[in-house]
Specification:
heterodimer, A: mainly alpha, 13 helices, B: mainly alpha, 78% helix
């Protein structure tokens, strides 16, 4: 078994793998590594000073804070929506189920301008917050709203199949043994969906960190206050500061790779869990 | 025993101990629907409301002015190139990964997913660093009078990048689940590789291909961040529909911006409708296979 490939009677392995690797290299791998090589032209102190200026640090805090808050809200409500869709019947359920994917299908720019119009001081929703002195659009709260919209389907769609697969016998056994419904939920059902819930949270969080289109319209984009890191990359690019843009892109890429690793581990955990069950 | 006392019509007797009381059920449904209404349905409705607020004339004018038409054309062109290429890539990748055992398979699967975790802005930037005037190939391209960045090829490349994984990630688990017995039988009976692929494999995964294509197309036509970085926003020439929405919006031409946005929202609704249809069909096919 020390060979690269196990024997198979099927043809086409070399062609298929060769094309896959060529395509992936040309479109993804070479441009990505070019970015890292380009950044390595900077010395380490130069790189470090670019990626830690106060304005950049403020953008990390905002990007991560708003993404985390949005992913958290999506974890709570995503679990609830998945639960309601799997367990209960109500009129219009099929339509609601289909519309959960709307944030995947709706272009981010459309979501951005729609949410801005809604949450502005004179908007349908914003007008209720204006008298309370709460501004949503053009503040970090607006960014949180946009990121919540973008991340909504992730938790629902990762938790839903796991909830569907829970066998009724488990819950019946718990009930027979005298567990209350709340105990059954917290001790039997919740631990089963936990890995999927965390995967959904991580997916929503990862998506939110890189998000641009839906955020820039509602953010206000004030330096130090409501400027996200992807926007800062564009700002640097427009000022022909290629070294600065590249350095920030490398930081974002490293974060993406870490998130990808975390998500892979969580997915492995999910599969491992359901294989045991 | 309190759980048993609650009557829940329409469910069998055994299920009673494993569901919630009616008022809990009703309040959970209400909270979930309220959340979805606030975050999904109201924004969707508002797009169409804002688009039609100034009347149908303004709407039609915004959707048919020359710049909008050229944006529609460019969006369709980019999708028409990116989607078929990613379908071919998806089929090739799934064939290699699902039908064969080789080293480094899980690394390859992860690499295919990579574009989904890269910020769209970074996706655009990497092509600027490759092909832009300051980029690696920039001077050579300029000498030979080839424009990629701030031109249509850059937009197509950025679109391909952000949509690479869609079809492959749909097909890999599907083809893995189907195994290799049918293909092996075809080959042993004397079919050529291409015959096996077109007559055995492709019919088995056709709903998966269609499903991935629908999602890939929606993203290709709606991509904003990556395309925005490489486009240069030249009106009437390198503007896609989402970029056209941005320009109109930044000019405070809200009615026109929402009119163009509503076209994209319609595309999203059609996408969701088709997706539902394909899911139903795929389920039927699965059940039919199960019966035989």
């Amino acid at each position: 078994m020390n060979k690269f490939k196990q024997h198979s009677v099927l043809p086409g392995f070399n062609l298929a793998l060769g094309f896959t690797l060529l395509y992936l290299s040309l479109i993804v791998l070479i441009p990505l590594s070019a970015t890292f090589i380009r950044a390595s032209a900077l010395s380490w102190p130069e790189f470090w000073s670019i990626v830690t200026t106060p304005r950049v640090l403020a953008s990390y805090r905002l990007t991560f804070g708003a993404s985390f808050a949005a992913a958290l809200v999506n974890a709570v409500f995503g679990l609830l929506v998945a639960w309601v869709l799997v367990r209960y019947r109500f009129p219009g359920k099929k339509l609601v189920d289909a519309l959960v994917d709307l944030p995947f299908a709706l272009p981010t720019a459309v979501a951005g301008i729609a949410l801005t119009a809604l949450y502005a001081g004179n908007g349908w929703i914003g007008q209720f917050f204006e008298p309370l002195g709460i501004k949503i659009a053009f503040t970090p709260i607006g960014i949180f709203v946009a990121l919540t919209f973008i991340g909504l389907p992730f938790v629902v769609r990762t938790v839903q199949p796991v909830l569907e697969d829970i066998e009724a016998e488990l819950e019946e056994a718990a009930a027979t043994l005298g567990a209350t419904r709340f105990q059954t939920f917290s001790r039997v059902i919740f631990p089963t969906v936990m890995p999927a819930l965390m995967t959904g949270f991580a997916l929503a969080f990862a998506r939110a960190i890189g998000e641009y289109g839906s955020v820039i319209f509602i953010a206000g984009n004030m330096p130090m206050v409501s400027e996200i890191t992807p926007l800062l990359i564009i700002t640097k690019l427009e000022q022909y500061d290629y070294a600065g843009a590249t350095a920030l892109a490398v930081v974002m890429l490293v974060i993406s790779f870490i998130m990808l690793l975390v998500i892979n581990l969580l997915q492995w955990w999910t599969r491992h869990r359901s294989a045991l069950a | 025993m309190s759980a048993i006392a609650i009557s829940s019509p329409g469910r069998n007797r055994n299920a009673r101990a494993t569901t919630e009381s009616a008022w809990i059920r009703r309040s959970l449904i209400s909270i979930a629907l309220a959340f979805l209404t606030l975050f999904l349905f109201v924004p969707l409705i508002s797009v169409f409301y804002e688009a039609l607020k100034k009347g149908l004339d303004v709407y039609v004018a915004a959707a048919t002015e020359p710049e909008a038409v050229s944006a529609i054309k460019l969006t369709l062109t980019a999708a028409a190139i990116a989607v078929p290429l990613n379908v071919i890539f998806g089929l090739a990748a799934a064939w290699a990964i699902a039908k064969f055992e080789f080293r480094g398979k899980s690394v390859l699967t992860t690499l295919i997913d990579l574009p989904f975790s890269v910020s769209p802005v970074v996706a655009g930037l990497i092509y600027v660093l490759m092909f832009g005037l300051q980029g690696w190939l920039g001077p050579w391209l300029a000498e030979n009078d080839i424009k990629i960045i701030f031109a249509v090829p850059g937009i197509v490349l950025a679109t391909i990048f952000v949509t690479v994984p869609f079809i492959a990630r749909e097909l890999i688990p599907l083809m893995q689940a189907q195994g290799t017995e049918e293909e092996e039988a075809a080959v042993i009976l004397g079919a050529s590789g291409w015959q096996t692929f077109f007559r055995v494999t492709l019919p088995n995964v056709k709903w998966g291909v269609l499903y991935g294509t629908i999602l890939c197309n929606a993203r290709a036509m709606g991509e904003f961040g990556a395309v925005s970085v490489v486009s240069g926003h030249i009106r009437g020439s390198t503007n896609t529909l989402p970029l056209h929405v941005e320009i109109l919006y930044n000019e405070y031409n809200f009615a026109a911006a929402f009119a163009v946005a509503s076209l994209l929202a319609l595309l999203a609704l059609v996408t969701l409708g088709l997706k539902m249809l394909v899911e139903t069909r795929a389920k039927q096919q699965e059940e039919n296979v199960g019966e035989h």
